[in-house]
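Moderator note: this is an archived Q&A kept for reference. The question asked for a predicted structure of one protein chain; the sequence and the answer are reproduced below.
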Amino acid sequence: MRVTYSDLAKTIDALTAGEADEVALMATVACEVHHADDRFDWTGFYRVVEPEVLKIGPYQGGHGCLVIPFARGVCGAAARTQEIQLVPDVEAFEGHIACSSSTLSEIVLPVFNGAGDLIGVFDIDSNQPDAFTEEDAVELSAILAAVFGRSMI
């Protein structure tokens, strides 16, 4: 099964409308994205909990790393640079942290709140090589911006 991003965006928007709690939003997004595509083997968030430190947040799949410093791994790189990391082969990524031996490729997107502050990263691992595309990066970024970039009153 391959994700249809327009349908996924509508579903996530309907499920998260009016919700301000970041953890609740993360849980809903992780669940919906995880079950939308067979390529997505592990789907979840790492939250910024202190300067230069990510801690695991809501996720779907096997266990994840509990703590990731900004200085290490693909998630750390996404947080440090505040840029999407599209990694076709995790073994070729210097400093990759192997939270799961089944991960072959990965995409990690920075997540910003309505004020533009980095609140975490959204990590999707695949047990398939070169599983992610620029379309995935663009569409997932749009979903994250719509959900977490809302002005909450």
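Archived answer notes: The radius of gyration is 14 Å.
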